[in-house]
Amino acid sequence: MFHPGVATSCLFIVNGLGLGNSTRCHAVIERLAAAGCRVHVLTSGNGLAYFEGKKCIESLHSMESFYYSESGGRISGWATFKSIGSLAKLAKAKRNSLAQLLDKVNPDVAIIDSEYAISPLRHRRIPIIAINNSEVVVTEFLKRRRQAKGVRSHFWLVEFSDYLFHRHYCDLVLSPFPVRTPTRHPKFRRIGLIVRPTVKELAAAASPQEALSPRQLRKVVFMLSGSVHATQINFNDRQFPFAVDVVGRSGESHGNVTFYGRQMNNTALLACADALVINGGYSALSEGFAFRKPTFVLPVPGHAEQFVNASLAADLGLGFSVTEQDVLDRLLEMHRQDCWIGRKPMPPAFEINGDVEAAEAILACASASRKNTTVLRPAVCLQPNS
What we know:
Blueprint: E1 9-14, H1 20-34, E2 38-43, H2 45-51, E3 59-62, E4 70-71, E5 74-75, H3 77-82, H4 84-104, E6 109-113, H5 119-123, E7 128-131, H6 134-143, H7 152-169, E8 172-176, E9 188-191, H8 197-205, E10 219-223, E11 243-247, E12 257-261, H9 267-272, E13 275-279, H10 282-291, E14 295-298, H11 304-315, E15 319-321, H12 327-337, H13 354-368
Parallel strand pairs: 1-2, 1-6, 2-3, 6-7, 7-8, 8-9, 10-11, 10-13, 11-12, 13-14, 14-15
Antiparallel strand pairs: 4-5
Helix pairs in contact: 1-2, 1-13, 6-7, 6-11
């Protein structure tokens, strides 16, 4: 519902460490902008580069970025915990940036994606909606805790704390998930996966991929993370019987291997791929589910969420959980045997209209925050793209 002649104002506060948070928020923002909302974005790092020039946002603002700490070349929950002093200083700077922005922008609702310095929002009683899958991570991790090696400290010190934060400090948490399942707490609401509108259109137009055998592969796209934790794969001294496109890393192209570096828009490459190799970020995984192409998921070592995401891909038949050491061997062996070794059957469909569901939830929350309105128009119903 809306005030006649008054546009709903939304503030998105987006973690800019990688690109996944930005791409999924952008999909929701496009829906809101189409419904007449005024959208402001506060972000950092890759998020600033991604949102620069986007016509669907009214203003773009910068802030500092949180980070994970490493130990022995892998993400460490303990090392991150021991960095609490530095993180506290960052949190103070982030709160100041947010407070200064709120003096200029008075949003009806704030949407956070992996951002935590939210006390200025709470002090001003601005409703807070999170787009976050910590509840999914907790639920799925506890099912697999015996198989989880090297990620337990990260789970308990980071991911479980993330879940508790969102449970206690947000008004609503939207948890994207590929199939309809109940949540572990009423504060959380499962919605479909959030993918870019162009990805949905291309996936809908693509022919089904279930029958494609490994020897029918013509092109495999390696979509490696845009974050500082991107996987390093050695493509040298390998002969590939198919084209290999590497997105997210720069390098010298040779033979069938082509490096594209960081791409703000990789949808055309994804659409042409017969199989995907991705890091375990949830946005990349979500687009793998949308395309339903055989997908090899490389979780960042020590990262509990990415361990869960890779496990979900395997359990739901999308593909395989692999490492940077064995991914090429496994891919080439499957090609040699012409068999997707160990791949489980997929469900008939995956839920991928999370952008629509998220936008509708945000609009409903913004409407509810205007309690003193006497004249209201009917709520806008957003329909998914055909």
